Amino acid sequence: MEPVRSDAPAGAADADKGPGNLVVRVLVAAVLAPLAIAIVFAGGWLWVLLATAIAVGLFFEWHEIVNPERDQRVFAIGVIALEIIGLALWFGWTGIALTAAVVGPTTIAFLSPDPRWNVSGFAYAGAALIASILVRLDGTMGFHALIFTLLVVWASDTGGYFAGRLIGGPKLWPQVSPKKTWAGAIGAVVLSIGVAFVVVALGWGRLAPMLVLGVLLSVVSQLGDLFESAVKRRFGVKDSSQIIPGHGGLMDRLDGFVAAIVFVAILGFMRGGLDGVGRGFMVW
How many other C-beta atoms are found inside a 10 Å radius of the C-beta of residue 16? Predict the structure, then answer.
């Protein structure tokens, strides 16, 4: 699961081009999306297990990108700390989770010659893990908040992809992501607004607040995508890995979700407290 660097063979670098790859992307998404929704619906230990595994995968890919020499001590400490956080949150041991969230990056910083990127990678994966678990563990609106987030992120990705390819036009931020356009960004927001209309029709909230949340999540998701692109460009990497056919790595596929779910958790915590993160985000 190595990252594809910019000096890789042309076939690896151009893997996202052509109609064949689009078919692969659609087929893989058609399998993974229902599976993700099923696990979100099940919740409980199954979701905690998936969220923890994804966090470990995110940290691994980040570690591989910023550490070509592959310091296994740093990776091992990060994995152990993430697993402790996931387990502790499931059992409600907030103090242990907080301790692991502090001791883990502190130890990583001590072991790393240049700790900035390694600690940042742990923070990236850890924030995604904590936010994902806290949102879903809300017994009243956790499922709704998590599904809404996933749907908006997926809609944002889809709208951005097709609007960018079909319309094209001025680039959004060519120094960071040469392919992204303003048309794609607007298409992402438009399709996310459509998701907000659907969830309101299902009785999940009032129209005006949900439209605002849909737009905000789309924007945050796109910022998360740009952030991940900036990290990869900094280290000369095109794809974080090739673990997901047609999509690249976990970071490539989940960059928008990581930013969005952390935003949801922060907003939900501010309004609903630690035990009402999902409710705090969804009830307006």
Answer: 16
d(CA 37, CA 145): 12
DSSP symbol at 114: S
Helices (H), 43-181: 44-66, 72-91, 94-111, 115-137, 142-167
CA distance 101 to 81: 7
Please state whether beta strands 4-5 and 171-173 pair in parallel, antiparallel, or not at all (unpaired). Answer: unpaired
Show Cβ contacts of residue 271 under 8 Å, excluding neighbours closer than 6 positions. Answer: 280, 281
* Rounded Cα–Cα distance for residues 261 and 153 (Å): 10
pTM metric for this prediction: 0.91
Count how many Cα atoms sit within 13 Å of the Cα of residue 13 in the half-sphere of its side chain. 8
What are the residue ranges spanned by the domains of the chain? 1-8+140-284, 43-137
Residue where the block lists tokens 């909230």: 205
- Chain-centre distance for alpha carbon 31: 18
pLDDT in tens, the chain (284 residues): 667 665 544 344 444 455 667 788 788 888 989 999 999 999 999 999 999 999 999 999 999 998 877 778 999 999 999 999 999 999 999 999 999 999 999 999 999 887 999 999 999 999 999 999 999 999 899 999 999 999 999 999 999 999 998 998 999 988 888 889 999 999 999 999 999 999 999 999 999 999 999 999 999 999 999 999 999 999 988 888 888 877 788 999 999 999 999 999 999 999 999 989 999 999 98
Pairing of strands 4-5, 237-239: antiparallel
Tokens of 39: 């696990």
Closest Cα to residue 128, out of 94, 156, 96, 101?
101
B/e letters for 223-250, b = 16+ CB within 10 Å, e = fewer, are: ebbbbbbebbeebebbbbbbbbebbbbb
